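G., the chain you wanted modeled:
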Amino acid sequence: MPAKIRLQRHGKKGQPFYHIVIADGRAPRDGKFIEKIGTYNPITVPAEISLNFDKALDWLNKGAQPTDTVRNILSRKGVMLKKHLLVGVKKGAMTMEQAEVKFQAWMKEKEAKAAQEVKISAEKKRADNKARLEAEGKVNAARAEVIAQKKAELAAKAAEEAAAKAAEEAATEAPAEEPAAEA
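Predicted structure as tokens:
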């Protein structure tokens, strides 16, 4: 059975973290492996991938078969393109220098695209935070207005009660003074 390049799951439930390993095709997913060549963390945005580029390329050239997910990871990191270019060099379609120039141009383009995605993501996050703060400010203003109305109503009620008490006290004091005035 040929060697496989596959993911070995680690991490806790709901928070996966993977090691990219070379393993015998018959070995269990999280079992014995030949060599660890990298890690993959899909939780972060963008997904964090650390890969030993040279070892991955070496194992691909030796005939190791990547799983579908690992093939996508290797494509994203440029290992599959480098392998393709090396096959072209081996067949005589291009020289090693031409292949290296093509690969470096692709890497620069890929890095620029990744930086742009990170920038767009940061701007979107900033805009979302700003919108959320504005919405929260509107809610707080509405609450403050309701509280101010309630305080005004309570103050008016307290003033009415104070006026009623003052009028009541004045009414009770006035009859008490009248009989004294008659005497």
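Residues 97-171 form one domain.

Shout if anything looks off.
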